[in-house]
Amino acid sequence: MSRKEGPRAGLRKAALAGKITNADGALARQASVRQFHRVTVRFAAEGAAGLRHRRRGQASPRRLAADVRARPRSCKAPTPG
After folding, report:
1. What's the pLDDT score for residue 20?
2. Is the dihedral of CA 73, 76, 77, 81 positive or negative?
3. Rounded-to-integer distance, Cα 44 and Cα 75, Å
4. Cα 43–46–51 angle (5° rounding)?
């Protein structure tokens, strides 16, 4: 878990224990109540692993195809002179 994702668990635990409301947690995380609740439910189901970003470890959808990346890059043509 990254440094950014690590502290997210504390507020989720407090919300699940009833010590804070979803509105308080959302305000502290600068997120909407809906977003805070959605991630809190995922945290309850999956634990700390549920807080990790879902795209981690996957290739970018904007990545160039393998055959394009394998092509040698052409150099700039020499200038006459």
Report:
1. 92
2. negative
3. 54
4. 50
79 phi and psi, to 5 degrees?
Answer: -85, 140
pLDDT for 81? 64
- Cα–Cα dist 67/4, whole Å: 35
pLDDT, tens only, 30-71: 999 999 999 899 989 988 888 887 788 888 889 888 888 888
Q: Please name the residues in contact with 21: beta carbons below 8 A apart, sequence gap of 6 or more.
A: 15
Say how far apart CA 5 and CA 10 lie, in whole Å. Answer: 11
At 26 the pLDDT is 92
Reduced to 3 states (helix: H, G, I; strand: E, B; else coil), residue 63 is coil
Angle at CA 2, nearest 5°, toward 23 and 46? 60
Does the predicted model carry a pTM greater than 0.70? Answer: no
Give yes or no for a contact between 29 and 76, defined as CB atoms under 8 angstroms apart.
Answer: no
